[in-house]
Amino acid sequence: MSVPGRRFNLPVHSNLSNETRFAIHSQSARASLRSNNAWRGIPVEVGVALIRSGATRWDREGLLLGMTDEPMDAEGRHALSQRVSGGGYPKARLVFCSDRARALDTARLLYPSVPAIVQTGLRPFDYGDFTGRPYIALDEDTHFSGWIAGAHIKPCPGGGNPHAYWARCRQTFSDIVAEAQLKGLGVVIISHLSVILTVLRQHCIPHPVFTDWDIPCGGGFTALCDPQSRALQLTGRI
């Protein structure tokens, strides 16, 4: 599980522009996938964009949302609109999103002409008794730190079961990639921090040696997905 309030940056070529960095990662990822898949006679790759939902009042107040169905507020919409006007979001003909209000709001704002397919499997983790608590308080809460330390073996108090959640994320991502492959389209997935981090940890190649990625509200990653193994190779930031 990800520890709220703790962020680590994805290593990048710090002396290169975002455009150059994207091109380098895209070329190397495609070359790797093609060499692995060409002889098998299967499609080379599926383009995937993982986007975190826009900001809510709870996000700005530093509260843990989890399954809470909090919509984007005016500030969140304005911030996301500013990001849209600055470019950087991939074009899309196939969009999946969580059924939480903030994800639906994000999908409508980013892709108003593409009806989003609602996928309940993209719901965030249920943090139960810790939902609505400030991150700063959770950092000092021994009950929370005790659960985090053993999150691989026990359910969250009053909340979700990590094993069931991880299985749900893996199956949902696989199903989405299968549909994108069938339609011959790239896919945009609009979800939540806990879901995106889980998908990255399960599928990202090479496997990360760091604990977390920094994904702001409305941010995310583009990637190429091997249609057989479901392995992801990141190609850029959003």
Descriptive key words:
38% helix, 238 residues, Rossmann fold, alpha/beta, six-stranded mixed β-sheet, disordered N terminus, 8 helices
Rounded mean pLDDT is: 82
CATH fold description: Rossmann fold
Describe the biggest sheet? Answer: 6 strands, mixed
Structural domain tally: 1
Helix content: 25-40%
Task: List the helices and strands in order.
Answer: HEHHEHEHHHEHEE
| Corresponding CATH architecture | 3-Layer(aba) Sandwich
The fraction of residues in strands falls at 5-15%
Rg, alpha carbons: 18 Å
- Major sheet: arrangement of strands: 3-2-4-1-5-6
Show unreliable segments. 2-27
Annotation, overall tally of beta strands? 6
Distance between the termini: 23 Å
Apparent shape: globular
SS element count, helices: 8
CATH uppermost class: Alpha Beta
The secondary structure category is alpha/beta
Describe it.
- It is a single chain.
- This protein has a six-stranded mixed β-sheet with strand order 3-2-4-1-5-6.
- The relative contact order is 0.23.
- It has one domain: Phosphoglycerate mutase-like (Rossmann fold).
- Helix 3 runs parallel beside helix 4.
- The protein is built from eight helices and six strands, in the order H-E-H-H-E-H-E-H-H-H-E-H-E-E.
- With 238 residues, the protein is an alpha/beta fold.
- The longest helix is centred in the C-terminal third of the chain and has 22 residues.
